[in-house]
């Protein structure tokens, strides 16, 4: 059986308003995006690693850490309103036209999720080996009581679900996309133009590793967790073991 090719794409737009230069901000002594590049390099199933960016500065740093940046993202696909999927599809089109490279799968890796580990990627790849699986995404368990704030300042259950109990144990568990890893067949991505489909399979990761960096607060928290991740993981295992 022919080995399926997997292209890892790391999107890294230069403009970030809430945290300027977020993708190359120092994180535990290394540019943030470097952690994701190193992560992708530890996944043996990945065929190529490409950083999709409009920024020459980000491109230089990405290449330094072992990623390819064969071209820069066009300005019209790097605005606040531009959809990331359009930029990814544009990259796929250019790779096909210029290099005749057409991967079987696209693995989207976000540079603002430095707590992602190689096992997360390997588990996603393993799921795709099941017959019929076309899309996989990492998720984390979440508090089932989720609310939105209405324009008048009052609370409303997310998805307008009717609240019948405040006892979390009586409510169905919920999950959120971590946004850190999406793995999808290229043909499906081209057809649906999004990374999530009704047939997407989940790969669950611990909540403490599901930190998505968008603000200075996120960055500080993620760095604190990252520096103490070994001790934190050991403590969680210890507490879980004692409970059995």
UniProtKB/TrEMBL annotation:
Pfam families: CTP_transf_3. GO terms for molecular function: N-acylneuraminate cytidylyltransferase activity. InterPro entries: CMP-NeuNAc_synthase, Cytidylyl_trans, Nucleotide-diphossugar_trans. PANTHER family: HAD SUPERFAMILY MEMBERS CMAS AND KDSC (PTHR21485), N-ACYLNEURAMINATE CYTIDYLYLTRANSFERASE-RELATED (PTHR21485:SF6). This is Acylneuraminate cytidylyltransferase.
């Amino acid at each position: 059986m022919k080995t399926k090719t997997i292209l890892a794409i790391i999107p890294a737009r230069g403009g970030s308003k809430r945290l300027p230069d977020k993708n190359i901000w120092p994180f535990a002594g290394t540019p943030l995006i470097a952690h994701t590049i190193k992560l992708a390099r530890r996944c043996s199933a990945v065929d190529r690693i490409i950083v999709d960016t409009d920024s020459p500065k980000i491109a230089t740093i990405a290449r330094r850490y072992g990623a390819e940046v064969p071209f820069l993202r066009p300005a019209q696909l790097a605005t606040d309103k531009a959809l990331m999927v359009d930029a990814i599809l544009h990259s796929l089109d250019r790779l096909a036209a210029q290099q005749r490279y057409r991967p079987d799968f696209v693995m989207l890796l976000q540079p603002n999720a430095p707590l992602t580990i190689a096992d997360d990627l390997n588990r996603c790849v393993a799921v795709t080996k099941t017959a019929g699986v076309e899309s996989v995404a990492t998720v984390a368990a979440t508090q089932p009581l989720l609310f939105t704030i209405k324009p008048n300042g009052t609370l409303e259950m997310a998805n307008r679900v009717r609240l019948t109990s405040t006892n979390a144990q009586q409510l169905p568990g919920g999950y959120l996309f971590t946004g850190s890893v999406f793995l999808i067949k290229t043909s499906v991505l081209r057809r649906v133009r999004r990374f999530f489909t009704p047939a997407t399979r989940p790969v669950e990761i611990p909540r403490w590793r599901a930190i998505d960096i968008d603000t200075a607060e996120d960055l500080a928290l993620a760095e604190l967790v990252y520096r103490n991740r070994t001790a934190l993981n050991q403590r969680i295992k210890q507490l879980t073991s004692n409970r059995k």
